[in-house]
Design goal:
Elements lengths: L1 E6 L3 E7 L6 H6 L6 E7 L3 H14 L3 E7 L8 H13 L7 E6 L1 H13 L5 E6 L2 H7 L4 E6 L2 E8 L4 E5 L8 H18 L1 H9 L7 H17 L14 H10 L6 H18 L6 H12 L10 H8 L5 E2 L2 E9 L2 E8 L3 H8 L1
Parallel strand pairs: 2-9, 3-4, 3-5, 5-6, 6-9
Antiparallel strand pairs: 1-2, 7-8, 10-11, 11-12
């Protein structure tokens, strides 16, 4: 087992191994005072793992209730959030109790935001069941729901008490969903870990993911500890996301987050090359890696459509927006541009 310690406003451990769902009850009993737990999951994950998590908690003396909502990004919204809060109140969850996020990034984001706001803050534990959630969404304390005008526009910074990455859950992922997580893994290499990119190029890591997952989490840990509230270096984690979120919005979330990020990384890399900020081989290297992991690189949406959707991006501050721009293979920088110049950046990248 690999353990990564995160020292933020609340310190916690991220444990990475197989068979960790069965240890949840023991782990939770040592962390939280209360003995009631609300498990939050979705209709894809609950049939696979809810009973296992429930049994582990009950064996440790917890009273359990479970909130299961329809799977999909479109349900990470205000209605589901308020339904969850009402559910917690009806089941008399107190400030000494805990929420358990069992699922992918949507479940983790929703549960974390509910935990941050219900009773002005209750503990929560992350049990990521997708590669994307394991390497990215479950760590760092970003919680949110989507609004009609954009993704993750209502949220809070709120760190979990514990993250258990049970690698057994990755075995049940369809190839398409596993590939979504690979986009975030590649992102970590692109922003500052050329060695990870080399490792990814040598062989597919699905059969033995612990090293890659731990390496990504450690990279995120370093950025979170340096910039917990996302005002500086942590924004490097947004490589491909500004345009990627625009692609998701244009598709009405029919295009998954990972695939949109893959397209976004390609677009921003091509644009950086066109503007003399990045060597051309970075694009060919990226395209080769995306193809290896079953990820797309091109979008059918126009620059004008993408620009319109990116105007709601959280990284916009007044009249500027922070772009993460590759400058070499395995290196990226933050680059502030006037909002009006963003259309040009997108056009050069398509």
């Amino acid at each position: 087992m690999t353990t990564v310690q995160v020292k933020a406003s609340r310190s916690y451990e991220v444990k990475i191994s197989r068979g960790l769902l069965a240890t949840l009850g023991h782990e939770a009993a040592g962390l939280v005072k209360g003995r009631s737990a609300a498990i939050v999951s979705d209709t894809n994950v609950a049939p696979l793992y809810l009973d296992r998590v429930k049994d582990s908690l009950e064996e440790a003396g917890f009273r359990i209730c479970a909130f299961v909502f329809p799977a999909g990004e479109s349900f990470k919204n205000g209605e589901t959030y308020l339904n969850l809060l009402e559910f917690l109140a009806e089941n008399q969850i107190t400030r000494s109790d805990t929420l358990v996020a069992l699922g992918g990034g949507v479940v983790g984001d929703l549960t974390g935001f509910a935990a941050a706001t219900f009773l002005r803050g209750v503990d929560f534990i992350q049990l990521p069941t997708t590669l994307l959630a394991a390497v990215d969404a479950s760590v760092g304390g970003k919680t949110a729901i989507d609004l009609k005008n954009g993704k993750n526009l209502a949220g809070a910074f709120y760190q979990p008490r514990l993250v258990l990455c049970d690698l057994d859950t990755l075995d049940t992922l369809p190839d398409d969903i596993f590939a979504d997580g690979c986009a975030e893994v590649i992102k970590y290499g692109m922003i500052g870990d050329e060695g990870l990119l080399d490792l990814l190029g040598q062989k597919h890591f699905r059969d033995d993911p612990e090293e890659v997952v731990a390496r990504c989490i450690a990279s995120k840990r370093d950025l979170v500890e340096a910039d917990e509230f996302d005002t500086g270096a942590r924004q490097l984690l947004n490589l491909g996301h500004t345009i990627g979120h625009g692609i998701e919005a244009c598709s009405h979330y029919g295009i998954s987050h990972g695939k949109a990020v893959a397209m976004g990384m390609t677009i921003i890399t091509r644009s950086a090359i066109a503007q003399g900020m990045c060597p051309s081989e970075s694009l060919s290297n990226l395209q080769k890696l995306l193809k290896q992991y079953g990820l797309p690189e091109a979008t059918e949406y126009s620059a004008a459509d993408l620009y319109e959707k990116t105007l709601s991006d959280k990284k916009r501050t007044g009249g500027t927006i922070s772009l993460v721009v590759p400058t070499a293979w395995g290196k990226s920088v933050l680059h502030k541009v006037p909002v009006g110049d963003l259309l040009n950046w997108i056009e050069k990248g398509l």
